């Protein structure tokens, strides 16, 4: 149909055509905007990356306080890292879990870590080459507890006695055998038992055991109970210990301070083994760097709040018995440069 004529000029009117074009364009624009808006509304929400998950083998048989303290510390200072702690029987099971990939980090005794890395553990003769170190932790004094009234004045007197060497598969049992060897004794020279610290203390007080050996940060609850009922600590010192230290450099001289246990009025000389925080060699470098850095950033507060962390020496921490993980080594290098 032709456009209507303008009354003054006689020209055909173009306004209706332009109006229709404008309206059509507006409709298209609205449709496009609406479609884009709907695509944004219907688009799936961005998926947040899951936080790094670190499995901590906390240890047991007297070592749970250390594992628990580490797990709680990391949860406080690394909220973006999921710390999953589970109990292991002891140092040997911890290094085995790390080697197999069933754990990511965990504390173990320095002697166990060294023997495992070198392939000298009796249970696992192959080198555990996936083990790496993060930091030396606290010293663990060796306690030899003898029963009330027992005529035992030195380790030599343990010959023929009923002695608990600690639970099977723990650093305590390995250290106990090393100690006996230093005094010329073998397992055949004693009546050896493998008991938990608490069970050993109960049997000692019942007269069914002559002595038990425990390795761990003081005070050990089972030892407190035993000394409260008349047991006593045996001094570990003398020429055999010096010979032992020449053969096993991870053995250190230490003492249990006076007043640590009931009736203990004097310091008791003994030996000790460091705990070392281990990890897998293939654990992400940035994760290990964060674990190392955060531990020492909060160490003053942690050591005052957690009795088992009070003996950690930050300056001594890199002196581990096996190679450091590259993430931990990076932290220590940076720490030295900022001094």
Number of strands: 10
Q: Give the number of domains.
A: 1
CATH superfamily: Periplasmic binding protein-like II
Query: Order of helices and strands, N to C?
Result: HEHEHEHEEHEHEHEHEEHHH
Q: What kind of assembly state do the chains in view correspond to?
A: single chain
Kindly state the percentage of residues in helix.
25-40%
The Cα radius of gyration reads 34 Å
Spans of 5+ residues with little confidence (pLDDT < 50)? 5-12
Which fold does the CATH topology refer to?
D-Maltodextrin-Binding Protein, domain 2
Shape type: globular
At the first level of CATH, the class is Alpha Beta
* Strand content bin: 15-25%
Q: What is the CATH architecture assignment?
A: 3-Layer(aba) Sandwich
Average the pLDDT over all residues and give the rounded result.
Answer: 82
Distance between the termini: 91 Å
């Amino acid at each position: 149909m032709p456009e209507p004529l303008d009354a003054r000029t006689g020209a055909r009117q173009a306004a209706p055509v332009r109006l229709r074009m404008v309206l059509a364009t507006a409709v298209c624009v609205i449709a496009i905007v609406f479609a884009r808006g709907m695509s944004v509304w219907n688009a799936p929400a961005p998926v947040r990356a899951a936080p790094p998950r670190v499995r901590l083998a906390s240890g047991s048989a007297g070592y749970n306080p250390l594992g628990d303290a580490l797990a709680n510390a990391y949860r406080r200072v690394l909220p973006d890292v999921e710390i999953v702690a589970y109990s292991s029987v002891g140092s040997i099971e911890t290094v085995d879990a790390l080697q197999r990939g069933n754990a990511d980090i965990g504390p173990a005794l320095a002697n166990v870590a060294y023997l495992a890395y070198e392939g000298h553990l009796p249970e696992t003769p192959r080198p555990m080459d996936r083990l790496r170190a993060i930091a030396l932790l606290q010293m663990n004094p060796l306690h030899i507890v003898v029963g009330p009234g027992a005529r035992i004045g030195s380790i030599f007197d343990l010959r023929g006695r009923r002695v608990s060497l600690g639970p099977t598969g723990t650093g305590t049992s390995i250290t106990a055998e090393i100690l006996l060897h230093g005094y010329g004794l073998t397992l055949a020279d004693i009546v050896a038992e493998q008991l938990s610290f608490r069970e050993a203390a109960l049997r000692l007080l019942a007269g069914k055991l002559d002595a038990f050996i425990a390795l761990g940060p003081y005070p050990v609850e089972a030892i407190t109970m035993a000394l409260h009922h008349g047991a006593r600590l045996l001094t570990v010192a003398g020429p055999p210990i010096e010979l032992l230290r020449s053969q096993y450099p991870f053995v250190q001289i230490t003492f249990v301070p006076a007043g640590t246990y009931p009736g203990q009025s004097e310091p008791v000389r003994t030996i000790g083994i460091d705990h070392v925080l281990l990890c897998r060699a293939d654990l992400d470098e940035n994760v290990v760097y964060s674990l190392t850095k955060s531990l020492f950033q909060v160490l003053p507060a942690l050591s005052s709040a957690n009795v088992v962390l009070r003996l950690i020496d930050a300056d001594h921490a890199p002196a581990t018995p096996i190679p450091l993980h590259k993430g931990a080594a990076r932290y220590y290098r940076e720490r030295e440069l900022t001094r």
